[in-house]
Amino acid sequence: MASLIRAARASAPRRAIASVSACREFSAMLTPVEEFPGLPSTSPSKATAGTASVTTLSNGLTVVSETGSSTSTIQLTFPNGGSASESASESGAAIANQFMSFKSGSGLSSAVILRNLEDDGAKPFASASRTGATVGFTASKDKALRLIPLLATSSTYEKWDVRDAQATAKVLCNEAESTAQTVLSESIYDAAFGAQSGMGKSFYSTSASGSSIRSFRERAYVLNGAVVAATGIEDHESFVKAVEEGFSESNVGEAIVSTPSVFLGRESRVHAPSAGYTHVALAFEGPKSSALANVIQQCINVGSEGALSGFVAPGVVGAYSGSAPADASSAVDALVASITASPSAAIVNRAKGLAKAQAMFALEGASSSLADVMTDSVLENSTFSAAEISAAYDSITAQDVAAAFDAMAKSSPAMASVGDLSSTPYQGSISAKFG
User: Is the full-model pTM beyond 0.90?
Assistant: First the structure.
């Protein structure tokens, strides 16, 4: 009897194991989703590259969108909204209008506009520069389309809104005047194009009146020639229709054909002995290809082994150096050598790789940086695709780079210097090394 009990107890675990094995064999016939409905996927689908689409509307507005981003950035760029497009009586209107975005207009108060954006978790932004102005927002993909009309409000120029914009612009201008790097940037444009030209005059001006702010915005913030760039848009056609409807009452305006400023290659000096430091930059007329300009920038960086900083800005490309006042002459000599000596094939290859990588990283970065790249590509080439951007860098040859450096070496450079200039050479003393 005892032996039977021991046998029964011994067989019980075996029966349990067999039962579990049978269950497992049955479960193996089902997928996890079938066996446990609602279970999150443990093998998400493979990420795919986004695709881009471009459409130009009858009113001259270009719409570009892509599908890959997880969030949506929608921005409206006005290429004539920068200070280079100001008339003589509108100086300072570009920077002031940067702060007129999302203000009262189209029957909505600024409080209502901002509240709608805030309720949907959207982050608004606005910017302006010499060559354009941008207004937009970043939001979740499911909320982006309904917020589009808020980009197209027509300002009513309420007195308090204009007053606040002027005050904020003044604060920004005061900060710029106290920052050596910003003063140097303004000085290099002065030296490159002349203080009376559109590109050469200062962006940071506080002289805008209420009437000039309004006249500039009504002339420059128009749909004709503008670009809407949007990321994370699944259906381009539906987005285009939403833009058409949302902007249906916006100012179309006339196409503005701007006259390009002529590169002069002069000098600008801001002597501030108390700075205790010297900032010097040489600039040259930039190539039409932004990809080539970026490669030139990297050639300067690589060729100088980090001692100098190459830079690219609208209309110009060049090199910068900062040093103690006593070393300013050596710093200028290094800047001259970085341009007059054509880079080797090894430097060009490395510079191409760095410039291309930087461009590709911008495509893979935040949705806002991608929207900027899309806008720049449309304004330069009337189209956008990651493959075309990559191909633009691949097509640059060592001969192209050598020709660009040769053109710079044969031209008169724009020279700007800020800080303690007691030992800084004048442009005239280095001009013999060019041309």
Answer: no
